[in-house]
Write a structure and sequence with these properties.
The chain is α/β, with parallel strands linked by helices. It contains 3 helices and 4 strands; from the N terminus they run H-E-E-H-H-E-E.
């Protein structure tokens, strides 16, 4: 991922991408590449949300998945696990992440 997790434009672009993929391929699943994020929570927009990097990532994933659900409610949604796994990258000190990626506090929950 090479963009700010909070930038509104990414969601508009993502919606257009999901709609285009759906119209061309009508896939059974969509794969979100929330993977190997090296810089998180560095800009004022992200910091203004008052979330940890882990919570910010969870918020972004939830928003992205919601777009898929709106376009294709029956599609599966896949994502790499490394950024959510405390045995992998969901740790306190990860590259240039400003804060912790560990799941704590006001995180996103399944549902």
């Amino acid at each position: 991922m090479t963009h700010c997790l909070s930038e509104p434009r990414i969601f508009a672009d993502w919606r257009a991408e999901v709609q285009r993929a759906d119209s061309l391929f009508h896939p059974a699943a969509f794969f979100m590449s929330h993977d190997e994020l090296r810089v998180v929570n560095q800009c004022a927009l992200c910091q203004s949300k008052g979330l940890t990097p882990g919570q910010l990532l969870a918020w972004n994933v939830h928003q992205s998945a919601q777009i898929i659900r709106e376009v294709r409610p029956d599609a599966e949604i896949w994502v790499w696990s490394d950024m959510f796994d405390p045995q992998h990258n969901a740790v306190d000190q990860y590259y240039a992440v400003n804060g912790s990626l560990r799941a704590r506090g006001r995180g996103w929950t399944r549902g």
